[in-house]
Amino acid sequence: MIELKDSGVYRSALPMKRNGKVGNALFKIAAFIAAALIPLVVIMVFVVLFIEAYPAIKTFGVWHFITSKSWDAVDNHFGAFTPLFGSIYVTLWAFIFAAPISIGVAIYITELAPHWLKPIVTTAIELLAAIPTVIYGMWGLFVLAPVMQNHVEPWILDHLATLPIIGFLFNGPGIGIDTLTTAVILSIMITPFMSSLIKDAFSLVPEVVKESAYGLGATRWEVIRKVVMPYVSSGIFGAGIFAIGRALGETMAVSFVNGNNHNPGSLLDMLSLLNSVTTITVTLADEFTEAMTHLYLSALFYLALILLTISFSTLAIAKLIVWRLERRWKT
Amino acid sequence: MENVRIKARVIKSNIIMILSTLAALYGILFLGWILVSIIYHGYEYLNLDFFTQDPAPPGMPGGGLRMAFIGQFLITTIAAFIGTPIGIMAGIFLAEYGRGTWWAIFIRNLADIVISMPAIVIGAAVYVILVAPLHSFNGLSGSVALSILSLPYITIATDEMLKLVPKEMREAAYALGAYKHYVIKKVTMRAAKTGILTGVILGLARMAGEAAPLLFTSFNNDHTTFNLLKPMATLTITIFIYATGPYHEWHEQAWAAGFVLTLGVLAAVIIAKYLVHGGSFTAPFMYVARRMTKINKG
C-alpha cells in the first residue's frame, strides 16, 4: 500500500502547509516594505539634498540665488540663473524640434506604413530609444558637432543672422559647441521616446470610431486631427511631459556638446542658439568632483535640489491636470 | 466651388502624410547614422588586448579597458540583485495586496513621477550617504544609485503585468484553499513570468547605459579592482572621460567601448522583444502614459 506521504498529492500540498500563515504574513510584510521603499527613497533624496544645500540656501536665499548670474568660485559667490535658464532653454528647443517629428513618426507607423514595414520601423524607433545617452553625447561631440560647425552653422550665420526680428537668435561664434547642437542631440534622444508613446496612444483609438469619420468623407489628416488626437489628448500630453522630464534631467547627452559656459554675456546673448550656455546637469557633472570649498559644494547641491523640484513638480502637476480633466469629463 | 474645397482638403491631408513619412525617415536616418559611426569607429579598434589589458599610460597606443568591463559587470550585477527583488516585491504589493487602497494608489503615482527623476540627482544624494562618510568613491555606492534608478521601472512593469492576469485564475487557486502568498508565487507570478522578465531585462539595460549616477559614486579607476569599497571604472564613465580627453588613442578606445556597450544594450532589448511580443523599451512609460488617458481608466 502506498503511504499518503509519498503520493504526489501530499507533496504538492506540502509547501502550502509548511508555509502556512507565518509565510503568508512574512510575504505580505516583505512586499509592503519593498513598496514603502519608493516613497522613503524619494523623501531621503529630498531631505539629503536639502541638508547639503542648506548652507547655500542660508547664504544666498532663494530669490537671489535663482536670479543672480554670477558663478564665481574664487569670490565664493554663486547664482543659479545661467544654468537654470540653460536647462529650461535647451529643453524648450529640443521639445520644439522633437514634437512635430514625433507626431509625424507616430502618424506614419499607425496610419501609413505598409503592413510588412510596421514592425521594422517600430523596432528601429525603439532601438533608437534604447541607445545609452552617453553614446548620443559622444556621437554628438565627434560626428554631429563638426557637421554643425562646418556646414550648418556657417549657413545659418550667412542667411539667418541678418533677419530683422529673429536675427538675435542666430548671433554667435557658431563653433558647434552651443545651444543649437545640444538641442539637436537632445531632440534626437527624445524623439523615439515621444513617438513610441504617441504611437501607443494612437493605437488605443477603436477602429470603428475612425471608420465612422472616414465614412462621413473625412480625409486622413482630418481623422487624425479631429478624431484620433482629441480621443487620446491626455496621452499625447503625457508623452510630451515625459519627454520634457527626460530632457531636463539628461546629463550625458548634453555634457559633451554644451560647453559649460557660465559667462554667456547678456540675456540677448544667452538667447542665441549659436552661443554656449550651461545647464544644471552639466554644471553638476563638470564641477561636483572639483568643488574646493564647502559653500561651492553646497551651491551645487542647491542646483541639484532645484532641478529635482522642477522635474518632480512638472510631472506631479501634469498628473494632477489630467486627473482633474478626466473627472470633469466623467461627470 | 465644392470640388475645389474637397481638393484642397485632400491636398492638405496628403502633404501632411508626406511630411509624416519624411519624419519616419528622419528617425531611421539618425539610427542608421549613429549605428554606422559606432560600428565604423569602434570595430576597427576592437582586439583581444582591449578586453584583457589595463590602460596604457595616457597618450600611448595599446592597452585595454579590462578594468571598465569588470567594473561595469560587477556594478550592474550587484545593482540588479538589489533593484530586481525590491522592484518585483513592490510591484506585487501594488497589484496584489494594495489594490484599490489609497496608499497603493499613492505609491503607484509616485513611481510614475520618480521614473523621470534626473539620474544625476540620485548620484548626488547617494554621494552624501555612501561616499562622503567613507571618504572614497566606491563601487558599491554606484550599484545602489543604479538600483534606485531601476526600481520604479521594474515596479511599474511588474505591477502592470500582474494586473493582466485574469481574476479567475486567482479565484480558482483560492477555491482550492491556497494561501495568498502561495497563489501569488505559484499562479499569478507564473502567469506573468515572461512579461515581468522583459520588464526586468529592459530596466537593467536602461540602468547599464546610464552614466550620470556613477559620476559621483563609483567614479573611475585606471586599474582593475574587485574591491567594492574602492573607486571602480565602468564603460559609461570611461567613455565620458576618454571622449572628452585630449588623446587620440583615448578617443579610439571610447568608440570601441561605445561599440561594446551599444551592442550589449541593443541585444538585451532585442531579446526582451523576442520574449514578449511587443515588449518594448519604453513600455513602462507607456503604461504610465496610458494611465493618463481616459480610455484606459475603464
Task: Tell me about this structure.
- Chain A is mainly alpha-helical and 331 residues long.
- Chain A is built from 13 helices and two strands, in the order ααββααααααααααα.
- The N and C termini of chain A lie far apart (68 Å).
- Chain B has 298 residues and is mainly alpha-helical.
- In chain B, 72% of the residues lie in helices and 0% in strands.
- In chain B, helix 6 (139-163) runs antiparallel to helix 9 (193-208) and helix 10 (235-244) runs antiparallel to helix 11.
- Residues 294-298 of chain B have low confidence and may be disordered.
- Chains A and B meet through helix 1, helix 3, helix 4, helix 5 and helix 6 of A and helix 1, helix 3, helix 4, helix 5 and helix 6 of B.
Structural class of chain A: mainly alpha
Structural class based on helices, strands and sheet pairing of chain B:
mainly alpha
Q: Total number of helical segments of chain B?
A: 12
The multimeric state of the shown protein is: heterodimer
